[in-house]
Every structure is written in structure tokens, then in C-alpha cells.
Amino acid sequence: MVKRVLLVLIRGYQKYLSPLFPPSCIYEPSCSQYALEAIGKYGALRGSWLAFKRILRCNPFHKGGYDPVP
């Protein structure tokens, strides 16, 4: 149930909010796509934790590049 709600919220962000801003994620896949994949694969708790850590790394002080869900 929580997993489904999180996935809907992230998809809503991708569809309605993300297009309003210029792309700024330094990683591939994007942080929101990473969150979708992590929550889909590991569930709400662990997937959210992985997404949270990824979002913290998404800044100019990190190299970026290809960073798939483990």
C-alpha cells in the first residue's frame, strides 16, 4: 500500500512538476527514476532510503554519471 502511494507520487512529480524545471540531475538514470526503480525493487522502506541517499549525492560536489539501483 505505502509502496504504491510512493510510486504514484513519484510518477506525478515526473509528469507534472519535473517538466517545469530545467534538468539538473547529474546521474543517469535521473534521481526520480532511480527512486521508482529502488522502491519497486526493494519496497517502500529500503527503496526510499536508497533514493534519499542518492538525492543527497546529487550535487555539484559529486562526479555523477551512470549509477543504477544496486
UniProtKB/TrEMBL annotation:
Predominant localisation class: membrane
Cited SMART domains: Haemolytic (SM01234)
Compartmental location: Cell membrane
Keywords: Cell membrane, Membrane
GO cellular component: a single term: plasma membrane
Membrane topology classification: Peripheral membrane protein
Domain of life: Bacteria
InterPro entries listed in its UniProt record: Membr_insert_effic_factor_YidD
Family: Belongs to the UPF0161 family.
Cited function: Could be involved in insertion of integral membrane proteins into the membrane.
Protein name: Putative membrane protein insertion efficiency factor
Organism of provenance: Parafannyhessea umbonata
